[in-house]
Write a structure and sequence with these properties.
This protein is α+β, with helices and mostly antiparallel strands. About 15% of the residues lie in helices and about 50% in strands. It is globular, with a radius of gyration of 16 Å. This is Flavin reductase family protein.
């Protein structure tokens, strides 16, 4: 199968949009990602997947901390900034959660310490031990088939 066909198949799976952030030598770095999942409740663990040629890879290895920021439907601009899709002429202002940089107003801010890493294919999987979580109300930003989307409530029909 061709790479494009595989990529298109993976794009059929709708995902939330996240910004991964870390800090190295006093400078905060962020990147948009959708390769994120929860792994365990006890202990509280998540995993992110970073491509081997991404500059974020070495930064997370160096800092040994990262945050996952689940973006709201109103934060498409932030997603595009950290995906390099639009220029941002100011310094982005991050908040902090347990000392780790986080995106302000994200639906979920999750601070993590790296507890393991595993190279598979052209990506490194970073296991993160969750150190803190902050939640906000709102609807998530969704990405599917190469486009940003919003959730729509469905009416559930019941028959008696």
């Amino acid at each position: 199968m061709e790479d494009r066909q595989f990529r298109n198949a993976m794009g059929k799976f709708a995902t939330g949009v996240n910004v991964i952030a870390t800090e190295v030598e006093g400078k905060v770095h962020g990147m948009t990602a959708n390769a994120f999942m929860s792994v365990s409740l006890d202990p509280k663990l998540v995993v992110i997947s970073i491509k081997e040629d991404a500059s974020m890879l070495e930064r997370i290895k160096q800092s040994q901390t990262f945050s996952v920021n689940v973006l709201s439907a109103e934060q498409q601009k932030e997603s595009m900034i950290f995906a390099g899709q639009i220029e941002y002429d100011q310094e982005f202002k991050f908040d902090r959660l347990d000392g780790v940089p986080v995106v302000p107003n994200a639906l979920a801010q999750i601070s993590c310490e790296v507890s393991g890493e595993h190279v598979e294919g052209d990506h490194t999987l970073f296991m993160g031990r969750v150190t803190d979580v902050k939640l906000e109300e709102g609807e998530p930003l969704i990405f599917s088939c190469g486009k940003y989307r919003r959730l729509e409530e469905q009416q559930v029909e019941t028959s008696v």
